Amino acid sequence: MTRLFKLLLMTLLLVACSNEREAAKQWAHSDFSSYAAAFSPNGKYVLVGDTDAPARLWNIEKNKVLYSWQNNEEVGTTTAVGFSGDGKVAATSEQDVIVLWEVATGEPMLRLSFPVKIKALALSQHGDYLLLALYDRTAIYFDVIGNKVLKVFEHDGKPVNSPINQLINAVAFSRSGKYALTGGDDRTARLWRLETGKQLRSWLHETPVNIVGFYPKGSYVLTGAGNGQTHFWNMKTGKEKYILTTASWPKDMELPDFPSFKTTTSAFDFSANGAYLVTGHPSQKICVWKVSSGENLDCWQVARKNALRPGVVLQAVAFSPSGKWIYSESGNGIGQRWKFK
Q1: Cβ neighbourhood burial of 311 (10 Å; 0-12, 13-18, 19+)
Q2: pTM score, two decimals?
Q3: Which one is predicted more confidently, 130 or 28?
Q4: Helices and strands, counts by H and E, the chain
Q5: By CB neighbour count within 10 A (0-12 exposed, 13-18 middle, 19+ buried), where does 58 fall?
Q6: 334-339 and 25-28 as β-strands: parallel, antiparallel, unpaired?
Q7: What whole-number distance in Å separates Cα of residue 67 and Cα of residue 200?
Q8: Where are the alpha helices (DSSP H) in the chain?
């Protein structure tokens, strides 16, 4: 079989995602649309950053608002949200202000104001440190208790032949608190040692990197590029383990430069046992993967709130603690629960 014939054959065998699927259960978490969302580590709550409304912490199964949070008396759009690794602290960001909240009581713990706008945030295991991607083209490692910047991270423009530093879009803490990941417009994801601020790895992508995260059960990281591919890397060797793709393509052949192989990943989560990965995408799509091999197990499309408005961005996805369900939160303000196994 010639390479050309094989290429044409495999093109015909590309696996498209299924049509819109009905959720086992769904909840309205926003009157209009949400800007950001994050699930708590225990899978009980979801924090939804609304547009022109306070951020709200929801008890998922009871569909009950536990707390409504805003940074000051004037309601604004919550542009980023997150939880500490132990789930005891939540963060909401409006432009250049972050408020840390005690999840158990709903009370504000600390209000932090920064000189530039915040693009993305991540909290450490206990919420005593922050990683912030800022619109001044830096990311900072911030000591909450000491109220000071410990390290500053930058993405130089060399990978894209630019004389200036590039915007950083995504940040993540390792569970141990020893490492950080950043992803930026320079098309790289970078691994840093927090204690020293030293860069350990840099992985080049075809387009700007929009999502980064650590695999909680081992020395691997996940990175994704906008309108590009999502990769699973070995932290220690720097080598790629696999690329996530829904197409039936031979592993011994290089992936062709087709749009069907490229889709932005906007959210992800690993199951509690580390065996499975769920990803959310801006195209209404949710996919489930086997972590050990990168095998695609299933894909489906989230139903739209309004049929005249195409496209639904998946802002957050998570496995339930039992692993039997998958939760999703979409930009149309709808939270949903899906049967996994």
Answers
A1: exposed
A2: 0.89
A3: 130
A4: 1, 29
A5: buried
A6: antiparallel
A7: 40
A8: 3-12
Nearest in space to 212 (alpha carbons), one of 158, 266, 159, 150: 266
337-271-140-81 Cα dihedral, nearest 10 degrees: 20
| Nearest CA among 142, 146, 145 for reference residue 133 | 142
Measure the CA dihedral 76/81/87/89, to 10°: -50
DSSP secondary structure of 257-325: S-GGG-----EEEE-TTSSEEEEE-TTSEEEEEETTT--EEEEEEEPPSSTTS----EEEEEE-TTSSE
Q: What is the mean pLDDT of residues 117-129?
A: 97
Cα dihedral 77, 22, 43, 285, rounded to 10, equals: -60
Question: At residue 17, does pLDDT exceed 80?
Answer: no
> Terminus-to-terminus CA distance in the chain, angstroms?
39
- Tokens 């980023």 belong to which residue? 80
Burial class of residue 109, CB neighbours in 10 A (0-12, 13-18, 19+)? middle
Give me the torsion for CA of 39, 184, 166, 160, rounded to 10°: -160
**Taking a C-beta distance cutoff of 8 angstroms, is the pair 51, 32 a contact?**
yes
Retrieve residue 303's tokens: 């139903």
pLDDT number for residue 10: 42
Cα–Cα distance, 51 to 36 (Å, whole number): 9
* Torsion, CA 97, CA 100, CA 105, CA 107, rounded to 10: -40
Say what the pLDDT of residue 259 is: 57
What region, left, alpha or beta, does residue 62 occupy, with left being phi > 0 and alpha being psi -120 to 50 degrees? alpha
- 128 vs 148: CA distance, rounded Å: 12
For tokens 């500490």, what's the residue?
84
Asked whether the predicted pLDDT for residue 12 surpasses 60, the reply is no
Rg of the chain, C-alpha, whole Å = 20
- Cα angle at 128 between 127 and 131, to 5 degrees? 75
The secondary structure element, H or E, covering residue 232 is strand 230-234
